[in-house]
Amino acid sequence: MTQFLPPNLLALFAPRDPIPYLPPLEKLPHEKHHNQPYCGIAPYIREFEDPRDAPPPTRAETREERMERKRREKIERRQQEVETELKMWDPHNDPNAQGDAFKTLFVARVNYDTTESKLRREFEVYGPIKRIHMVYSKRSGKPRGYAFIEYEHERDMHSAYKHADGKKIDGRRVLVDVERGRTVKGWRPRRLGGGLGGTRRGGADVNIRHSGRDDTSRYDERDRDRDRERERRERSRERDKERERRRSRSRDRRRRSRSRDKEERRRSRERSKDKDRERKRRSSRSRERARRERERKEELRGGGGGGDMAEPSEAGDAPPDDGPPGELGPDGPDGPEEKGRDRDRERRRSHRSERERRRDRDRDRDREHKRGERGGERGRDEARVGGGGGQDNGLEGLGNESRDMYMESEGGDGYLAPENGYLMEAAPE
């Protein structure tokens, strides 16, 4: 297909000229011939240097050794400077140390932004101040963080020394001490190896956070006292928490006990109410049964052919339920008072459920039927025994118990009620 291309395009696909051959400039390594063969180092040992004439080996200094060397050199230079300054230091001839040394107060760790007027306001509460001297750097002119306050009275200085230590001024707690340069023999400032620098021991866990006025030998004892005080406070807090937990539990118990007592009282009131209702229901039922029994006996007496002998039986019925035993109304047993009681009983009875009325009605009907049959048989037996011509005393229709009770009550002054067995007075004729 390429043969149909024009010459200029065919020239692009034409192969290049072959690379011309050039002979090498020197022989290849494997074609070279070595004139001297390989040998050992024995012939050259005589050329080495004698070890006795060689210099001793030099040892290089490590990084740790260099840092330790510089630290020792710095300490030595500082000791020399301190010794030189101690020879020149004389606080009694210092031109800046003016005023009475026993009335002067030393205040350190002062905020760099605190002014002299601020210090005067804070320390003037302890007494009148005569002079305040704040120390500044000679090179930069900035405050160095400490000052001297001279009071007019020595008692005011002692009061400030006692109460102002640890006072917070502009966010920093200051260290308050007396001036010791002119009052304590052999005392040296901090820049000369003395002062109050013993309060800084290392990290935050070992630093001593009090003023540092006392001797450094008592720091360990103060640490122990501080630890004991901290443990005592922790134990006190634990006791308070435990006491609060016990109080809360006792309050809960009292609250639950009060709720249980209230519930028990409510239940007892409900039980007493239920008992009262049940007692009233039983008493109403017993009165109703007694009334029905009286009516039934009156019917039996009336059906048995009553006569003159039945009158005492009518008068011998049970007294009304609402009146005391042995008393009758003014109009007799069938007076208005008795009729009112009957109406009340009928009204209470009408309130009962239909099922109870039906059950009581069926029970009463069965009982009346049985008693009627039993009374008829006994009447016939007595008629056969007595010849059938005895005197009608109105007891033929009564049962054995009612007749015996009536017969027993004839000989006495009163009669015995068939319902409750009370001895009642006879009805007036």
Automatic annotation (TrEMBL):
Residues 103-181 form the RRM domain. Residues 60-79, 207-245, 260-277, 285-301, 336-384 have a biased composition (Basic and acidic residues). Coiled coil: none annotated. Residues 48-79, 187-429 are annotated as: Disordered. GO terms for biological process: mRNA splicing, via spliceosome; regulation of RNA splicing. CDD domains: RRM_snRNP70. The keyword Acetylation does not apply. It is found in: Nucleus speckle; Nucleus, Nucleoplasm. This is U1 small nuclear ribonucleoprotein 70 kDa. It comes from Zalophus californianus (California sealion). The gene is SNRNP70.
